[in-house]
Design brief:
Structural class: mainly alpha
Largest sheet: none
CATH topology: Hypothetical protein af1432
CATH class: Mainly Alpha
Distance between the termini: 43 Å
Helix content: 40-55%
Number of strands: 0
Shape: globular
Number of domains: 1
């Protein structure tokens, strides 16, 4: 049975042929790194690069002013992202891709997803620590500030030379097929295959990780919460099934390794 992915596929129609706003995105002067520097995108998750981005892109200061937030890097959060959430989100995204049906897998942009998965939360280093690590429910005003992290991440990386597809995955990783996420998008916004993979990987990673304001969920609990996105039409069933298959495989491997010890 063939699958024509040029047309919407049921819930949250997937169309890998549409790049999110790639034709509308303008770029300023690139922040060129040393020619001998590693080509890994991890080079952008550094204090030096982010400080240079603050100087290069005045829009970052505009956003911080709107948030009434100081221009201060949370280096602890930067290290936490690099050591844990960024890498785990990368691994989960790769796992989702590996478990997709062949007809969809061949249309996933693996590099864009991998790079965006590592950098998607880089904007959190500019979110005030008292909000980012609040041990309790955020107020509506605090939520609005927290929601700016994806936009900040985009602005931090906009002049880096990273391609438009990856940049927009970073900016819109909290958006969905019904446009109920953030930041706000126009009516023709399309949550494509790549975005849905990244969003699912990010959410699953966040749910199974311990945070100062919550305990980690187990696989079943996390998947049950993400399945709500399928029911709402925010996530395609094929992407969810691939996540579920990956999660079950990971748990099985863990059990086997523990038994072997």
């Amino acid at each position: 049975m063939g699958i024509d992915i040029r047309k919407p596929l049921g819930v949250g129609g997937i169309n890998s042929n549409i790049n999110i706003f790639s034709s509308r995105t303008g770029f300023g002067n690139n922040l060129n790194g040393d020619r001998f520097e590693s080509t890994s995108v991890s080079r952008f998750a550094t204090e030096n690069y982010i400080q240079a981005a603050l100087i290069s892109n005045p829009q970052i200061k505009v956003i911080l002013k709107e948030m009434n937030a100081p221009q201060k890097l949370n280096l602890k959060e930067l290290q936490e992202l690099s050591d844990n959430h960024s890498k785990q989100t990368q691994n989960i995204a790769a796992g989702i891709i590996s478990h997709l049906p062949k007809a969809l897998k061949q249309h996933a942009d693996v590099k864009a997803i991998k790079d965006a998965a590592y950098l998607h939360d880089i904007g959190k280093v500019l979110i005030p620590a008292e909000i980012l690590n609040k041990n309790g429910k955020l107020t509506d005003a605090e939520k609005e500030i927290m929601h700016r992290h994806s936009e900040l991440g985009y602005e931090i990386l906009k002049n880096s030379g990273i391609d438009a597809k990856t940049l927009n995955l970073i900016k819109y990783h909290h958006q969905n097929a019904n446009h109920t996420g953030y930041p706000k998008v126009p009516s023709d916004f399309f949550a494509d295959l790549n975005l849905q993979i990244l969003s699912a990987a990010d959410k699953y990673s966040a749910l199974i990780e311990p945070r100062v304001y919550k305990d980690p969920l187990d696989k079943e609990q996390a998947l049950a919460l993400i399945y709500r996105d399928v029911a709402k039409g925010n996530l395609h069933p094929f992407v969810f099934k691939a996540l579920k298959d990956y999660a079950e495989q990971t748990v099985q491997i863990s059990k086997t390794n523990n038994f072997a010890q």
